[in-house]
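Q: I'm writing up a methods section and want to include an example of the input and output format. Could you take the sequence below and give the corresponding predicted structure tokens, formatted cleanly so I can copy it straight into the document?
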Amino acid sequence: MFESAIENVSKFTRPLHTIARYHNGMIVPGASTFFFVNDKGAAITCKHVANMIISADKINNAYNEYKSERNRLAKDNKYPQFLKNLDNKYKYTKETMVQLKTNFRNSFDKIAKIDIHMHATQDLAILEFKGFEKTFYSGHAIFKRNNTGIKQGKYLCRLGFPFPEFNNFKHNTETDNIEWTTEGKQNSPIFPIDGIVTRFLGKPQGGHTGIELSTPGLRGQSGGPLFDREGIIYGMQFATKHLHLGFDLNGKEIIDGGHKTQVSNHPFLHVGLCVHVAIIKDFLNQHSIPFTEGD
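A: Here is the clean output for your methods example:
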């Protein structure tokens, strides 16, 4: 049902790859999603994704200052204590993220600057990419024209990058930096998930702000488009809500592999939350970002 729509929407939906290094040395890959709203390099994503982009510079600059101070420490028997004091100064523990690098995959030949606009109340942000000469996406979002024509039971689909499989990164021990490389797997597969509209967020008299779907938005799909079988955009995935079903089991006796055992289970229904198309269009208009509507 969504074959043609997925093929079309995937042309302008892109992954934001991240690598996060923690003070214990662990490097964790991650992904989120953004999609383009015109051919001028403007895209939308979640505000929490945009905040991560902004925080990367702060995190990396702090670690560069830390390294500079660490390199000036005398390598004598007092070094362990001095290093511990330095960790305390920067409030670093083993679980602290000390480096964060981002990579906007398959979007442009180069990026000189990104202007970011954050929505005041919704988990929504605009990314305006600057300084590119070539774009590696084609087409752009076509947003639903009729904001009020979305009803319960409508069958929709979301796209995103929930399962990061890329491994084109390394830790440069000479510079003590994490880096992107040209080796290894550079992409992750795009992943669709369908669902029906169950409820709406916000009050009807004040206008709906969001759409609830019967299935979860997966981690990494934040910022991904919500669309129908024609590829018309209805919203943007931003969160998953966990609804307690009340069918709890405590110490239930079952037979597993020929043996009696007791299990407990507390089931939840995981529903996806999407920013409503009306909110997206209003926000784009506020910042004079051109976009296209369709039926």
